[in-house]
Amino acid sequence: MLTSSFAPKTAVDRLMLPLDVPTIGEAETLVAATEGKVGVYKIGMELQFAGGLEFARELAKAGKKVFLDVKLHDIDNTIQKAVQNIAKMGMTFMTVHAYPKTMRAAVKGLTAEGNPNLCILGVTVLTSMDEADLQAAGYRGPVSELVEARARDARDAGIGGIVCAATEAGRMRQTLGTDMVIVTPGIRPAGSAANDQRRVMTPLDAIKAGSDYLVVGRPISQAPDPGAAAGAVVQEIETALNT
């Protein structure tokens, strides 16, 4: 059982919904449509550049858990100072790329702010990438080996968790033990289109594989009834937890 202070308590807690829409108005509509059926709202780059940072603050002030998906990767001082500022925003989760120096700098920034209730997640390998993509980028070896190496680096750096594909979650749980969070994007309910995701899994299988939090985007946000779609994912998570 996960022992992290960021461990989810309910099936709803485990569902992360990306607010990947072009305007704040559309994000507000999506939040209202999924009220009570989503545990964490994720704000990525698309919305960040359309007023999303202030919107993230507003959501946090309203009592929502917010995942600021910034994927930071820069020189140490920049990372440290950026994390110090993010730590003041009331976010629950944030991301950095899982490079050792980047993660260590992020931990320094968090520590400088008194270790607030913020979980830093290291992004291992994007779920839109496969073996061919890694080879094109100059990496050698299977995706799983690179994910595991970066997960070990994340553990050694002392951050709160990692982001990886659900197909790797079971192995990463063995690597990380029970005190780090595993967040898995690329979750697609049965029958949903994979879109640009490569390493995908259903919500039920992802939970059984060892994922703590599931990032489910377009199958919910582009559904005719996003609230019903989110509820169906939560029910599938509940089924996985009880079997």
Q: Give the helix proportion (percent range).
A: 40-55%
Classified in CATH, the superfamily is Aldolase class I
- Approximate shape: globular
User: In CATH terms, what is the fold-level topology?
Assistant: TIM Barrel
Q: Report the mean per-residue pLDDT as an integer.
A: 92
Q: What's the number of extended β-strand segments? A: 8
Most strands sheet: 8 strands, parallel, barrel
Order of helices and strands: EHEHEHEHEHHEHEHEHH
Number of helices: 10
Q: What fraction strand? A: 5-15%
Number of domains: 1
- The parts where pLDDT drops under 50 for at least 5 residues are none
CATH class: Alpha Beta
Structural class: alpha/beta
CATH architecture annotation: Alpha-Beta Barrel
Strand order of the largest sheet: 1-2-3-4-5-6-7-8
Q: In whole angstroms, how far apart are the ends? A: 15 Å
Return Rg in Å.
Answer: 17 Å
Structure description:
The chain has 243 residues and is an alpha/beta fold. It has a single domain (12-241), classed as Alpha-Beta Barrel (TIM Barrel), CATH 3.20.20.70. The chain has helices spanning 24-33, 45-61, 76-86, 100-112, 131-136, 143-157, 169-176, 203-209, 218-221, 226-241; strands spanning 15-18, 40-43, 65-72, 93-97, 119-123, 161-163, 181-184, 213-215. An eight-stranded parallel barrel has the order 1-2-3-4-5-6-7-8, surrounded by six helices. Helix 7 (169-176) links the parallel strand 6 and strand 7 (181-184). The longest helix is centred in the first third of the chain and has 17 residues, at 45-61. The radius of gyration is 17 Å and the shape is globular. The two termini are 15 Å apart. The model has no long low-confidence stretch (mean pLDDT 92). It comes from Roseibium denhamense. It catalyses: orotidine 5'-phosphate + H(+) = UMP + CO2. Catalyzes the decarboxylation of orotidine 5'-monophosphate (OMP) to uridine 5'-monophosphate (UMP). Substrate binds at residues 20, 42, 69-78, 127, 188, 197, 217-218.
